[in-house]
């Protein structure tokens, strides 16, 4: 520190230099305290707000103006945020949110995001502590999934990106590094991949984006529990091989998107080993179930994967976004992405040291400090508490199943392995309950619920039927929130069917 020049600006007193820092730091500090307080108020009093509400036209209009030439005060921009943005968010922090599969975030993660923004680290690489923090998360994830010391990991936006990257790593392993120069020309038609019909749409998208095309992805049927039928899997692989294809990739799912099923991962691992295929697990929300003593036994076999994609922003409750890819063999992982570029030369000392860098493990060069909010979340809450939250969401799902069974107007449409409950409102006997009518009715009920602000479930299609889907992910969700949702479904459903039969 002694060697730093005293005040390098002192030699240029008349300089017309401008910067974007505040002229009055003390006023800025006061404003920043108000902003922080407003956000803490929001989180503390979430329950007093509707889960979601429609955006008024006046608010939309404020974001359809021309590019500002002159700035306005921070106070007035914040005022706009409070009036026109904050009340009309997606609702996933709210305890009544149970749609799709989204995490609730935590006040700790929020503060960590602020610290990360203050540091403004570009975590693409270089010898800096934020890279070390990301490496700490990699080491922790090796521990959680019993992966070897040779495993690598990298933060990405989400599991969609992590699944795509896993396909690219498996491709490079199957075809050799030369595919990165030559492209797929001579191979593309021959490589085939496998996943269950229950897999998330981004697995097919990954095959598309990687250049294989979605038709190279074989969709294996699922059993009564919505788990991949492993006999059908092996039969499909053998049929493809006999027909001249080269099977290279199997994606099992730990926590399927529609109903929360877990594929038989141990059996898939055996098949992948026998058939010389890459074994990937899409564990977008389910993989972190390893922290829960209740869920971990259901994930047996995940520790045998070649790669696992998952999101800290779902069951991990970390602020968006925080996707992650863990790969068993770091050398294979780097082979798919690392590229020598002159201006990114690595040195043995100075800031350009510390190779390999996160940018060697994925397509992103500039990257934010996602590791910090994840580190704070794990460090402050610990895996025991986070695991208990995961168990709690599964217990709540069982509570909901029990409540549904007590209403003759409701029907459970899929077994519940984890935290996702799919059910339908059937209506009273008078109601003309054809399949199409029931689909429309349940779709309307869900939209009515959204607009009521009481609860936000979503919909999905289970074996051809539209279902109300409740995915309990948020740590704030309580039995009372499920009661409120169910009562609203029954009340709205009754009103609608009464109207229809009048
Ligand atoms: C959410 C989810 C994805 C997609 O993850 P993103 O983080 O939204 O990209 C993929 N697979 C499953 C099973 C999911 O639940």
TrEMBL record:
One GO term (biological process): amino acid metabolic process
Comp. bias intervals (Basic and acidic residues): 1-20
Region (Disordered) residue spans: 1-23
Species this protein is from: Undibacterium jejuense
Needed co-factor(s): pyridoxal 5'-phosphate
Family recorded in the similarity comment: Belongs to the group II decarboxylase family.
Protein name according to UniProt: Aminotransferase class V-fold PLP-dependent enzyme
Domain of life: Bacteria
Residue positions where N6-(pyridoxal phosphate)lysine is found in the record: 314
Organism ancestry: Bacteria, Pseudomonadati, Pseudomonadota, Betaproteobacteria, Burkholderiales
Keywords: Aminotransferase, Decarboxylase, Lyase, Pyridoxal phosphate, Transferase
Database matches in InterPro entries: Aromatic_deC, PyrdxlP-dep_de-COase, PyrdxlP-dep_Trfase, PyrdxlP-dep_Trfase_major, Pyridoxal-P_BS
